[in-house]
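In response to the reviewer comment on reproducibility (Comment 2.3), we provide here a single inverse folding case reported in full, input and output, so that an independent group could reproduce the run without further information from us. The structure tokens appear first.
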């Protein structure tokens, strides 16, 4: 469970907490609660070989990339954000009001000066590229300015997971971010809710939602196909619904494959990621127009499953992606 993965409170901090609570024995309840809350810090955010020590609850955090932004929104800490940047697709309706309450610093990455103008006390990015010199700047330099930071556990290397990708490791990240923002209980609830959804999917799997179905996960590309491989979000989703990834033998979360291999795989269904930079409609039109790819049975029979790109990457919406894939597989005529 999440509680076992939360950042342990250092002994020194526990001692401080005890002293504070003792000193406040005769103080008003509000003061006691304030002392107890302050004892949860410092918190260490450890990812991608960098450790950031967060001394107090962030009040002006900035999220870079949709995945990081949506973790913050799912945790309900929008009032602790000074800004966001870089969406891949639409923020879901359930978080739209919260998202609209936060300033958008840039359509893509803000530069270092724009970021500093927001006076951030913490920066959370989905990918290492968020901390390039042309974006937020190196994490070490932000630390020198007193700004904490964190990269997603899955964003350290290009197109490769930084650790084994699993629903549990996704919850690890959410728990860490929950600790940083001072809302560990909300992180625990997200995990419990998502575990319940996955249990429901296991029932669907037993009923045949994805059983016996060979799937090609088409992310983007035209000269070659950028496909969901065997070690990332697409594989987790297909495993959850009981379907078979035709490129499960490839390393990493994503891989370039030739169209000849796609044709040879003869997938029953094609999952198409819908992103602002590569829409599902564009990809489906490409498949239908190509003289060879258009002859695939999945293309001829319109056996497409479409989900937002943000539901295909390791993050707070990955379980939503699994649920939506299962629902669409169930509705397809696979006879």
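Designed residues, in position order:
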């Amino acid at each position: 469970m999440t509680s076992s993965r939360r950042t342990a409170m250092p002994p020194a901090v526990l001692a401080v907490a005890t002293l504070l609570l003792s000193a406040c024995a005769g103080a008003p309840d509000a003061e006691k609660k304030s002392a107890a809350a302050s004892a949860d810090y410092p918190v260490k955010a450890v990812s991608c070989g960098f450790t950031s020590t967060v001394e107090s609850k962030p009040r002006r955090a900035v999220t870079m990339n949709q995945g990081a932004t949506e973790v913050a929104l799912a945790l309900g800490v929008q009032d602790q954000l000074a800004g966001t940047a870089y969406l891949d697709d639409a923020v879901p309706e359930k978080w739209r009001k919260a998202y609209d309450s936060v300033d958008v610093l840039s359509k893509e990455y803000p530069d270092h000066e724009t970021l500093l103008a927001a006076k951030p006390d913490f920066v959370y990015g989905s990918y290492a590229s968020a901390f390039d010199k042309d974006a937020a700047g190196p994490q070490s330099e932000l630390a020198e300015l007193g700004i904490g930071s964190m990269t997603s556990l899955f964003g350290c290397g290009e197109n490769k997971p930084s650790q084994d990708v699993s629903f549990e490791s996704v919850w690890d990240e959410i728990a860490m971010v929950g600790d940083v923002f001072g809302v560990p209980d909300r992180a625990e609830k997200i995990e419990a809710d998502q575990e319940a959804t996955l249990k429901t999917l296991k029932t669907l799997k037993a009923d045949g939602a994805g059983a016996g179905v060979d799937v090609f996960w088409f992310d983007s590309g035209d000269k070659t196909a950028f496909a969901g491989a065997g070690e990332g979000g697409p594989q987790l989703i297909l495993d959850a619904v009981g379907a078979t990834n035709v490129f499960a033998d490839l390393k990493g979360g994503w891989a370039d494959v030739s169209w000849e291999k796609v044709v040879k795989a003869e997938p029953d269904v094609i999952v198409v990621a819908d992103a602002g930079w590569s829409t599902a409609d564009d990809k489906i039109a490409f498949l239908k127009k190509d003289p060879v790819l258009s002859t695939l049975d999945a293309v001829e029979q319109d056996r497409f499953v479409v989900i937002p790109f943000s539901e295909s990457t390791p993050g707070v919406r990955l379980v939503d992606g699994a649920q939506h894939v299962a629902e669409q597989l169930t509705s397809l005529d696979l006879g």
